[in-house]
Amino acid sequence: MNIIYSFGWFIFSFVVLSIVGLFVGWIDRKITARIQWRVGPPWYQNFADFIKLTGKEVLIPEGSNKFIFIFSPVLAVIASTICGSIILLVLKNSFGFGGDLILFVYLLTIPSLSIILGGSSSGNVLASVGISRELKLLLSYELPFICGIIIPALKANSTTSLIEILKFQQVNGSNILSLSGVIGFVVILIASTGKLGVVPFDLSEAETEIAGGSLIEYSGILLGFYKLTKSILLVVVPVFIVILYLGGTSITGLGSFLIFVLKYLIVVILITLIRNTNPRLRIDQALKFFWGWLTLIGITGILISLSGV
Amino acid sequence: MNLKLKALKKSLWVYHVSSGSCNNCDIEILDLLTPRFDVERFGIILAGSPRHADVLLCTGIVNKKCVERVKEVYEQTPKPCVVVAVGACACSGGIFRDGYQMAGPLDKIIPVHVYIPGCPPKPEAIIAGIVKFLKELK
């Protein structure tokens, strides 16, 4: 792949991921509204939000580190788009190398890290509370998340390549059809709600107590970039889960593409249901939950998958 | 009409400024977010920080302690933003107009775009006021 092609692919995946992500964000909000017996926003709501944010004034607080304050939202968008472009290439069955699973796990932490960077550069007290929570949350959900990633990697003959995991499932059936697969799916689904920062684990930007937390000083297009990152991650993380656990069809024809979209929507709806039926946890509860029960269940799953079930 | 203004009208994020109100208008504002009135169908949601807001929903007479805060919140809000005075107190002073702590009404302190009178205004009245304003906005 030459550099122009890869840059073009980056732009292409940015456009696709943003549009899909903003639209799926609407599905999430609409389902939330229906669960709460409301009507909910119209389909273009998230697009309107983003376009509005591009037109707003950008305020940079006094005493902040200007470069990091402006740079970190851009970094968040770029990192999440790179994750997404790798995922799209894997889905095209055209690209993959040993170790891209590990690269992916590293890249997925960069949006959280850039929120921490941006929040800490803004010099706000509530933002510092938010970033301390975000840091602890990052440490806590990574462990079960990695447990959930190890299980399919072990099942596919100890590979660290996403495309090998996908091909293994095309031959042997989806990972979720086995006992360890079910355990791993539940673990990674719950850990991904922490990764996406949705309600049971949205304590880093809890609007009702710390008023937006780490994003409190952001306005205008910079806030829009963070919202866009959340939308892109809402595509990337569920698709990642689909690849790891619900694979089984290659995306070539229209029929298999529709089945893939269905699987993706099922994962998104499961995350939405988790978010609507649970209250926000305190940070110590979240840490106990992630490092306690969820990691134990994840390690059990790894042991079961080692025994080949 | 340009796209950004259109988008602004479809997605108003509200920051609620209470400057010495008797809490009655604030309860009516919270009513707006309940499933019965559900302003999210117009794209209106409550923001936690004035930096995220497009609309400042101000209630209460502005008392002497609050003047500086109200000005500061207005300056912290990224422009273009809309200021809405909710309730008789914010519009004109209401029954507290001769009070010793009165420094307002609101339009003495910051520019106000929409006045919604009532003590307190019904949630329907608040929605009607915002909708009328959005029709006029160009």
Protein described:
The complex is a heterodimer of chains A (309) and B (138). Chain A has 309 residues and is mainly alpha-helical. Chain A has one domain. Helix content of chain A is 74%, strand content 0%. Chain A has eleven helices and no strands. The longest helix of chain A has 33 residues, at 3-35. Chain A is globular, with a radius of gyration of 19 Å. Chain B is an alpha/beta fold and 138 residues long. Chain B has one domain (3-136): Rossmann fold (3-Layer(aba) Sandwich), CATH 3.40.50. In chain B, 36% of the residues lie in helices and 15% in strands. Chain B contains six helices and five strands, in the order H-E-H-E-E-H-E-H-H-E-H. Chain B has helices at residues 3-10, 24-32, 67-76, 88-92, 106-109, 123-136; strands at 13-18, 45-46, 55-59, 82-86, 114-116. A five-stranded parallel β-sheet of chain B has the order 2-1-3-4-5, with helices on both faces. In chain B, strand 3, helix 3 (67-76) and strand 4 (82-86) form a beta-alpha-beta unit. The radius of gyration of chain B is 14 Å and the shape is globular. The termini of chain B are close together. The model of chain B has no long low-confidence stretch (mean pLDDT 85). Chains A and B meet through helix 2 and helix 8 of A and helix 1 of B.
Q: Can you describe this structure in just a few lines?
A:
The complex is a heterodimer of chains A (309) and B (138). Chain A has eleven helices and no strands.
